[in-house]
Amino acid sequence: MVISSRTTGAITAAIAATALLAGCAGGGDDEGGTDAAPADEATPHGYVEGAEETAGTQPRLVLAESATGRAAVLDLTTEDVVEIENAGEVTGMHQDGRFAYLASAGEEVHVVDGGSWTVDHGDHVHHYRAPAHGLGSLPVGGPTGVHGDASVTALTLDDGSVHLLDRAALDDGRLEETGTAAVSAGAAAVPFEGGLLVPTAEDGTVEIRDQDGGATTTLEERCEDARGQAVTRRGAVLGCADGALLVTHEDGTFDGVEIPYPDGTGDAARATAFTHRPGSDILAARAGDAGVWTLDLAERTWRLVETGPALAASTAGDGATLLVLTEDGVLHAHDSADGSRTASAPLLSSPPQDDAPAPVIETDTTRAYVNDPAARTVYEIDYNDDLRVARAFELDFAPDHMVETGR
């Protein structure tokens, strides 16, 4: 595996920053190292044996090449690369915050521990890092959606079946299924606040089940033809035929709030997949050939930014730039308040082929990451500085698929 960065001194600075974080973090290893939390301190929330708690996020990118199945984890702090056992031909990739799920043409899902994760307790968070490695495979078809919380990860397959994996077992390096469920065509199951949101029928019924798949209750509000899901601090979001359904939880009760599209929105422009920075309450989604939607969960409103057809879009949240990668390989920045374009920069070496997976945009609080398979490169973008390329990670394989873990 070969990787280079065109940023002078980045590795030295990153290593120094890592050392500083380790020195400041509660529960972190001292110079001698340890596999457990100190005996005289309370075990931190979310701690896993062998992990190191850090003072900040430890973002990593899990990357895979479609044709060869080569997979690797790129540590964005140290710039180290860990190659993972070959997964065979890769047809898709998802993540649940810590683990990546690589679908192979051989009807298997290979699970990769990205080795970094964040535990969010609302008023504070804990960050951890550990070695990245492959975890094994599951004998199931490719998932169309993967969503997880501290207790369970739900893999929804293209046939509508849902496989529920025990999260504690995953943290310990074991693949253990705890239950199953089934969703309507195009939908996905979403763990949320101790329950499991399951869109179950074309009439829009959304069930709240136990996290082993057992049915418990049904939301009063409906979500017809559910497609696209996200979990935020304001609640879980389901994309529906006529807009979005925001599911909230308070005092043990689940409630739904409908957020309809603006009048005149046709089916071709509906949002079917959401992207956002974890912790943000602003979502982005492609709007067919019209452009890109932003969904503000605080204001409960949609805004259409008319960019034309887009390959990918994302935003870091309230007041942050909306990033849009158009089909010509140009990255654009838009003001999130009024949708106006503020910067543009040619980025991709060539537009992707029709049968190739589209590039993605992974967004952090100050940086965004875009994969360019044709150039075998991942770009780190400073979107607050006219889309400046801060680092370019040059690989010896094509990063056709990319997800970020550790957030």
From TrEMBL:
Name the record gives this protein: ABC transporter
Location of the region described as Disordered in the Swiss-Prot/TrEMBL record: 335-359
InterPro entries given in the database record: Quino_amine_DH_bsu
Species name: Streptomyces marincola
